[in-house]
Amino acid sequence: MKTKGALLREHNKPWAIEEIEIGDPKAHEIKIKMEAAGMCHSDHHLMTGGIPMAGFPILGGHEGAGVVAEVGEGVTDFEVGDHVVLSFIPSCGKCPSCQSGMANLCDFGAMLLQGEAVSDNTFRIHTAAGENVYPMTLLGTFAPYMVVHEASAVKIDKDIPFEIAALCGCGIPTGYGSSTRSGDVRPGEDVAIVGVGGVGTAALQGAVISGARNVFAIDPVEWKREQALKFGATAAFASVEEAAMSIAETTHGGMCQKVVVTVGEVHGKDVDSWMGITAKGGTCVLTGMGNMLESDVTLNLAMLTLLQKNLQGSIFGGANPKLDIPQLLSMYKIGKLNIADMITRQYRLDQINEGYQDMLDGRNIRGVIRYTEEDW
Ligand SMILES: NC(=O)c1ccc[n+]([C@@H]2O[C@H](COP(=O)([O-])OP(=O)(O)OC[C@H]3O[C@@H](n4cnc5c(N)ncnc54)[C@H](O)[C@@H]3O)[C@@H](O)[C@H]2O)c1
Ligand SMILES: [Zn+2]
Ligand SMILES: [Zn+2]
Do 14 and 159 have their domain in common? Predict the structure, then answer.
């Protein structure tokens, strides 16, 4: 079918809405009529080239929710009319990682930046001129319709607002899981969240819900710091340097058992400062991303060894999409997880560049694209 999508044809150029052609669902694929797509910072890394896809043009978007419009052969878990979250992490349920409870490391993940569908290694999306289109993480939620493998979709209750559900395709499980799973925050621990945007605010809620004693939020944007205090941070600082002395005072020199790094642009030169506010025996969870080609890190190895610290990478917060997405949404439903206040602004698809500018200007915790009759 003909539809449209937000494409990138080269790095550092704005998103452009172009006509695209989406193929019919093949075996184990489903077609989704999209309702909402979250604007995560990782799509901005596609624009800068920090996260390089295998080719151009790229169709952006890896966080979204919609309604199943068509199912391919062999699909048994979904039927037309089901409401789903599109998870940027596919989980096949069969590979060793899925079988061992690490679905966030599903073998399908190897294909996330390749552009081809995991079902048969062909391209499902083309431009009007017939070029292959490379969708972000097997999805491409910046289009009103998508065809995805069933491993990338998670069925949800029909009474959940789509914009709320959309955030559970990446930001919410990634942030919440960075604290609760990768960080394993325990009651009474002191925690720092470095960067309280979309992912960081979910991490902050994960730390608060886990019973952290002090939760220090660090972000250069004053409005973000104010929001963090509303979401349960016990103190907020503009930089790690500014926070370090206060954290030392509050924790009597112990520092933070867990530090969760969710800054928009990660740089290796900052790692030592994050490890500096991590307690001995503590863990610094690195969830934020920078340029994939950067490999220089500043890190005092003696302090790493002698104070037995851990530096822990985290994809999707260590969460399991098919288990955690419904659970997080059920927590939203009973008022234990505040997703609604994380949605600062909603946009039409053609306002995508404005939405990303608002993110970069520090005006949004999360911006969401809402699809309407005009898009379908
Ligand atoms: N590992 C994963 O699975 C995964 C998943 C989603 C997003 N990400 C990455 O997580 C990061 C955050 O994503 P987001 O959507 O929340 O972005 P965002 O832009 O909403 O939030 C980033 C926040 O970091 C703050 N910040 C910038 N520089 C800082 C610094 N030096 N110190 C402290 N705070 C700083 C910004 O003001 C902003 O509030 C991005 O790098 C994104 O690519 C990783
Ligand atoms: Zn994301
Ligand atoms: Zn798997």
Answer: yes
Q: Is 220 in the pocket of ligand 1 (CB under 6 A)?
A: yes
Give CA–CA dist 286/230, Å, rounded: 24
Query: How many Å apart are CA 302 and CA 267, to the nearest integer?
Result: 21
Distance between CA atoms of residues 8 and 103, nearest Å: 29
Asked, for residue 20, whether it belongs to a domain, the answer is yes
Domain that holds residue 152: 2-169+338-370
pTM to 2 decimals? 0.98
Q: Is the CB of 174 under 6 A from ligand 1?
A: yes
Determine which residue's CA is closest to atom 31 belonging to ligand 1.
263
Residue tagged 């048994």 (tokens): 76
pLDDT tens figures, 127-161: 999 999 999 999 999 999 999 999 999 999 999 99
pLDDT digits (tens, 9 = 90+) for 58-116: 999 999 999 999 999 999 999 999 999 999 999 999 999 999 999 999 999 999 999 99
* In a shared domain, residues 8 and 149: yes
Coil, strand or helix at 248 = helix
CA atoms within 13 A on the CB side of 134: 18
Residue type, 46: L
Q: And the tokens for 185?
A: 């925050």
